[in-house]
Amino acid sequence: MNFYDLRVEAADGSMVSMSNFKGKVVLVVNTATGCGFTPQYKSLEEMYEKYNEKGFEIIDVPCNQFRDQTPGTDEEIHEFCTLNYNTKFPQMKKSDVNGENEIELFRYLKSEKGFESFGSGIKALGMAAMLKMIDKDYKNNPDIKWNFTKFVIDREGKVAARFEPTIDMKKVEEFVASLI
């Protein structure tokens, strides 16, 4: 199995094949509307507008598994994102990214790129401290740790990088730009 073999359910119920993105750089991100990292939607939309015509796509998968920070319906989530951040990139159906109901896309991504680090800084330290209370062994499993974890897929369909939500969006953009 590879990235292009996967399909994801869109918010409207249609199935989106990842093969539609062959030859493009793709960023897959699990998102939330009520999270401290929600303002990253602004940076994501800026990246989308800057690089989309050069072969860059974003696949937004809303997820409510982290402290119920995405409680709305798919329609309400879409409305929030378009009204507050003017997002234009594709938004999928709200889905689980961990556990027995996780969607196949995230099972695959996690198998290709496990957790490495939250990086450095106050947000990274805070995230690590919080997760230690939830799961003392969090560093040793590939699960998604929080909202706004990002995976970058290169033009050949390989998972090139995983960025935790605490990583500065400028670093994410620099990496994406290096693949464009």
Automatic annotation (TrEMBL):
A single GO BP: cellular response to oxidative stress
Single annotated GO MF: peroxidase activity
Residue ranges annotated for the Thioredoxin domain, each copy included: 1-180
CDD domains noted in UniProt: GSH_Peroxidase
Entry annotated with the keyword Cell membrane: no
The keyword Oxidoreductase appears for this protein: yes
Residues of the active site: 35
Alphabetical UniProt keywords: Oxidoreductase, Peroxidase
Gene3D superfamilies per UniProt: Glutaredoxin
Pfam families: GSHPx (PF00255)
Xref: SUPFAM superfamilies: Thioredoxin-like (SSF52833)
Family stated for the protein in its record: Belongs to the glutathione peroxidase family.
UniProt-recorded name of the protein: Glutathione peroxidase
